[in-house]
Amino acid sequence: MQCIVHFSAADLYITKHLDPFLEKTKCNAKIRRVYFTERRVNTVTPKVKKYCLLNRDLSAFEYPSYEDITQHNIVIVTLSTSLRLADLGLQDYFTHIFVDEAAQTLEAEAVMPLSLASKDTCVVLAGDYQQISPKVYSPEARDQKFDISLLERLFQYYDSFSHKIDPTKPLNILLRINYRTKMEILRFISAIFYGGPEKLESRANLPSVLEITPLMFYAVQGMEIQDSDSISFYNMSEVQEVVERVQELFNHWPTEWGERNPKAIGVVTPYSDQVRSHEC
């Protein structure tokens, strides 16, 4: 069973990996993508839809039965929909449970799919607690350490007695090779977060641009604003700075990058209101 935080990421596993693999190899593996029934069918791509369970007139998703699940080799769910499988009495059924992006998951959420595990189930929590962590706004919840993901908690627990563990059978595994980030950026990340500039290795095949430094920092003044009808935040000083930098990059597009393409520029922010502010 593969568990993912967001439904869009769950669908990417099918469209980018599993479906092309099955088409290429003609493997007889059977996949079931479990969707929540309130999701509109017309918002799901045909590649994903063919692995879902729909009603007779194909107008709505349905939850699978125990028999349906046991007829499939791979079951893909979000954390919340994994509870539906627990209701079916599938405890102890799965040989493997993978929880992707577990560092972005609240511990209470991560426990939901693990309720289907037995002592013989192989459980893998994949993620990086040095990156974005789950957002917990309640001071009381933070005092109780609910802002720490299960992955981080287990990482620290296993690390505390790693000297007693057989090095050929580690419980914590760090993937060192990176295929998406330039060496200059990765060395900084490696030095700040992972114990040294050589801890991570870049194998990204990205063209260098002499006129542009791969990593730059800009300081801005401003403050986080929260509207009365929102639980999100935005900072207009940051928005203005990002807009100016994107315009500058677009207007001075390096020839090494090929044809000028605004869709090739990515802006990352953890707050939805900040995203909307950039769009405006």
Shape: globular
Q: Can you count the helices?
A: 10
Strand content: 5-15%
Low-confidence stretches: none
Strand order across the largest sheet: 2-3-1-4-5
Full CATH superfamily name of the largest domain: P-loop containing nucleotide triphosphate hydrolases
Distance between the termini: 40 Å
Question: What's the number of structural domains?
Answer: 3
Count of DSSP E strands? 7
Q: How is the main sheet built?
A: 5 strands, parallel
The radius of gyration over CA amounts to 22 Å
Q: Percent helix among the residues?
A: 25-40%
Q: Architecture of the largest domain in CATH?
A: 3-Layer(aba) Sandwich
Write the element-wise H/E pattern from the N-terminal end onward. EHEHHEHEHEHHEHEHH
Q: Tell me, what is the CATH class of the largest domain? A: Alpha Beta
What does the average pLDDT come to? 90
- Structural class by helix and strand composition: alpha/beta
Describe it for me?
The chain is α/β, with parallel strands linked by helices and 280 residues long. The protein has three domains: 2-173, P-loop containing nucleotide triphosphate hydrolases (Rossmann fold), CATH 3.40.50.300; 177-206, no CATH class; 209-279, no CATH class. 33% of the residues lie in helices and 8% in strands. It is built from ten helices and seven strands. Helix 8 (183-193) links the parallel strand 6 (177-178) and strand 7. The mean pLDDT is 90.
Give the SSE layout.
Elements: E1 2-4, H1 7-25, E2 31-33, H2 46-49, H3 66-70, E3 74-78, H4 82-87, E4 96-99, H5 107-114, E5 122-125, H6 139-143, H7 150-160, E6 177-178, H8 183-193, E7 201-202, H9 236-251, H10 272-279
Parallel strand pairs: 1-3, 1-4, 2-3, 4-5, 6-7
